[in-house]
Structures are given as C-alpha cells and as structure tokens.
C-alpha cells in the first residue's frame, strides 16, 4: 500500500444554478431522480473537468452538510473518464466481466454503447430509461461516477491484438502475492463510486443487467470510505488500520500531474489518448496482528504519527519527511524499512501513481479473523514506471508487508473520456 496515497476529502463546490426538472414523461429518459428531490435536487454541484481538482483544494471552515450530499454531480463526458481525479466516494463497487463464448468485437461495441448511455443517465440523476428498479428513486446523483476499462484478454477475444497497449502486459509476480485467479483480471472492468450506498448499488445492478448475453460477471467487490460531512472539516482519509492514508497523493495542480497519470494525446496506441492505466489489488489487512502492536510500534512501521499523519521526523501532516534525522542514540527517527520511507517518489526514480481506493469488510472467518482491508486502485500513465517499481521495492523489505496480504490483482487500460455523442471505447472498437 504505497504511501503516495489516497486523495483528500472533497471540498464542496459552490452550488450551480438551479436546473429545471425534466418532465416525468420525457420520451426514452424515464422519471428523473433529481425531479423528485425538490430543492435538494435543484442545487447540483457540478464536478466536471475543472471540478475534478476539487478534492485537492484547501479545506474550508465548514463541511458539506449531509443534507446536500445527494446533490453532488460528476460529468460523464469529458477529456478523461469520471472516477479518476474526483475525491474519495463513500461507497464503491468494482466489477470485472468476461465476454461470453461467441461474443466478439461487435457485441463488445454494442455493450459499451449501452453501458455508456446508462452511466450518463444515472450520473445525471435520472433513471436508467428502461426497466429501472427504483432503488435510487428518492436520491440525487450523489456524485456517482462510472468508469470503464479493458483487460489484457479483451483484445484477443475481440480480434484487436494489434491494438493492445504494451503497458497492459501482465504484472510481474511479487513474493508477497497470494492471488486468487478467480478474483483477478477480466476482459472488462467497471468502477462505480457514489456518496450514497443505494445510488451506487443501483448503478451496479443496472450495469449488470445491461451486460445481457454479451458478458458475465467474473468477480465483484464492494468498498467504502468516510461519508462527506462526517467530520468537522474535510480531512485526509484513514484506512482500517486507523492510519491517516493519503498525504502524498499527486495533485492535479502539480506541474507534472498529467504526464504521470494520463497517456498524452500523442501517445500510443492512439485510442488511449487522455486515458490511464488502473492497477487493482485486493489487499487484506491482518488486523488481529496489527492491533497487537503498541501505537509507537505501529507508527514505526508506517513512519508517521497515527494521530495526525505527521512524519516521525516532526512537523504536521504535510511537512516534508526528514529521512536523515536521528535520535539521541544515533538511530534514524524514520526507520529504514518504514512504509513511508520506502514509497517516497524521490526514492523510486520519481515513480508516481494516483491512489483512489476503497476499504472493504467481507465478514468474519470461522476463526474470528476479519476479512477486511483495502481495495487498492491506482492510476498512472504507465504501470511499468508507476506501480511496478514501487511494489518491487516494497516486496524487498517493507515493514508493513508482515501485516497485509495481496489476494487479487488486475491491470486495465482505461481509455480517455467520451465526447458528446460518443461511447467509451468507441475509438478502439470502431477504428
């Protein structure tokens, strides 16, 4: 779990101008969820291309009231797909599909067209437009995002091997991996996030139904984060180990952010322009063992104070870590195998990735051990320069590795955003 880490909590944007409710009988659109909300649905917070950086601004004096959580809205169309630069969402679903036998490029194109249309409607706070379950009838958009990607095997199944990016080559084996192949990889990958659990589930169910006979679910995972408005002011998230987790995440305001996270417009292959690569890992936290450690021992493993995320070398959460500082005995204040020391970009050739994960808890095993941890999702322009070198270094001596276990893995090519009138992946599937 590299310390480059989670996006900060979102800072509320200023309310947009009230939008007129869509008529309930609008042809082909269904009943608008926003129209059912009254004033709450009419004060949508637009988080489009410019708003994507909202999660990285300075914290305001007051948090978003919970009563306005449902009004947040992300935009489907844009330069990049939604669900990458937006701040953390309270509820998430990750799901991978395999194309069914006999389904090829034509069926995949029709599926991505259906999925894109459904995602656009739901992200606008509308119904699916066909056989809607009504699960989210009383909710606004709730910052719903739906993101689509292609796995390595997708290109062979659709006859598009020549369009498969070199960056999508399988990840190397790591010594700490205990991977379940049944919960790894997949032809297609969908990430769903929202600030309301019912809105997120509604989108998951709609995407599953839209798959029809073209694709079947390979694996599916559920995650969560702190709900916006649950703290006195927006704060960096905590993981299930209780650690502040996300201090050093790259920010869209960084001069080299786009270069590190997104494929350039001139990049190869051309259909991946403005896209990114997502590494997905299910990382189980061995919480019973972790919680036996004293607070100082936990802090030594991470290299940061548990209370506020500040480096052990002193200062506040965002104070640069002094790796050379020693105590009275001459020992490094930040241990040599501390997680935060090992994952620093300046100690990994500048390797950087944008982390946007979810915590998960899938019950308690028969022996009383919690099946809980992190659904790790990180974004980068090239995983061979982002995720791989950092994970290799962690594999060789990270103090945290004793308390975690990588149980599933996937790598997906996520194309750029769809322009108005396009569906996601159109430039690949209709070349």
UniProtKB/TrEMBL annotation:
Domain of life: Bacteria
EC number, as in UniProt: 1.11.1.-
Cofactor dependency: heme b
One annotated GO molecular function: heme binding
Domain Dyp-type peroxidase C-terminal positions: 236-418
Residue span(s) of domain Dyp-type peroxidase N-terminal: 81-225
Entry GO terms, CC: cell envelope; cytosol
Family membership: Belongs to the DyP-type peroxidase family.
Protein name: Deferrochelatase
